[in-house]
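Researcher: Let's do a round of design. I'm pasting the structure tokens now; please hold your answer until I've finished.
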């Protein structure tokens, strides 16, 4: 992308610059919020509604390097979530987070809403893992809410199946004082404990490693953060599964791009098409998944 040309074209709407690791970032600032999007991965790395601390958590140990996924923010996991058993050597969480996306458009709705539309239409270097013709569009609207809409279109002649996630890392004050609501009564796969299949009863509190994939999760989740004195609502459209993840102590220590005490100030609540919620996209059809994040100070 020609940065000078971009900045001329979108002057007054947003700006682009080269940041850490030589990666290109688009910065949005309007009357409601500021945000940053790294073009590698179409990765939202910051969303700051006016008067609040960042809603997103970025790892202080994140590796900023083209081809290496960023730790924190909102990784776009596509065209698969987690491991793909068909490609045991393939990258975890798909290929989209490792690739540089294009900016398709930037638009404003008044002075307090800016939409950056990014696109990806090829997977250079990963063709052995994804042979289908597709168009991927990611619309990020920065306003008093952060709205992220990921649309997959099948441009080929045969159907394909995808799993995906907007793997959102939330910034919390103290994980031991966080309560997550919205999953009561829902079945989930527990990836790190027993029994593997269970049903959530009541509120989620985090006091150990948590890696849970919820099904029938088509509604809102609320992260109540007593330390930062705010509630973050994660609303969604077109998704029936969600993932709740905190690596806790041992896994934080094992991950090179994650600070040892990072688990204390982050929590992932991911809007997904995961596991049983895998989707088939027929030729010529599109599938959209939307996540709407709103943070309110108490
Ligand atoms: C979560 C998964 O979505 O992502 C976890 O449920 C995984 O199992 C985590 O550890 C982080 O994945 P990665 O590939 O970014 O280290």
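Researcher: That's everything. Go ahead.
Model: Designed sequence:
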């Amino acid at each position: 992308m020609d940065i000078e040309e971009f900045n001329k074209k979108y002057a007054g709407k947003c700006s682009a610059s080269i940041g850490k690791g030589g990666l290109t970032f688009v910065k949005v600032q309007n009357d409601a919020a500021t945000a940053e999007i790294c073009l590698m991965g179409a990765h939202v790395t910051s969303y700051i509604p006016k008067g609040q601390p960042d809603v997103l958590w970025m790892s202080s140990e994140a590796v900023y390097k083209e081809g290496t996924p960023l730790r924190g923010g909102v990784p776009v996991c596509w065209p698969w979530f987690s491991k793909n058993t068909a490609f045991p050597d393939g990258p975890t969480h798909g290929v989209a987070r490792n690739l540089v996306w294009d900016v398709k458009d930037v638009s404003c709705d008044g002075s307090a809403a800016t939409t950056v539309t990014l696109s990806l239409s090829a997977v250079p270097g990963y063709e052995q893992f994804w042979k289908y013709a597709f168009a991927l569009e990611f619309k990020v609207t920065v306003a008093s809410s952060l709205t992220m809409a990921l649309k997959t279109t099948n441009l080929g002649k045969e159907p394909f199946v995808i799993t995906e996630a907007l793997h959102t890392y939330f910034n919390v004050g103290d994980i031991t004082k966080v309560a997550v609501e919205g999953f009561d009564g829902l079945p989930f796969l527990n990836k790190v404990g027993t029994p593997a299949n269970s049903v959530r009863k009541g509120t989620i509190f985090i006091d150990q490693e948590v890696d849970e994939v919820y099904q029938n999760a088509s509604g809102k989740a609320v992260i109540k953060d007593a330390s930062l004195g705010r509630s973050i609502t994660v609303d969604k459209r077109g998704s029936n599964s969600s993932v709740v993840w905190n690596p806790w102590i041992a896994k934080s220590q094992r991950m090179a791009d994650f600070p040892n005490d990072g688990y204390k100030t982050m929590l992932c609540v991911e809007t997904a098409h995961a596991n049983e919620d895998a989707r088939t996209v027929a030729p010529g059809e599109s599938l959209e998944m939307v996540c709407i994040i709103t943070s309110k100070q108490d």
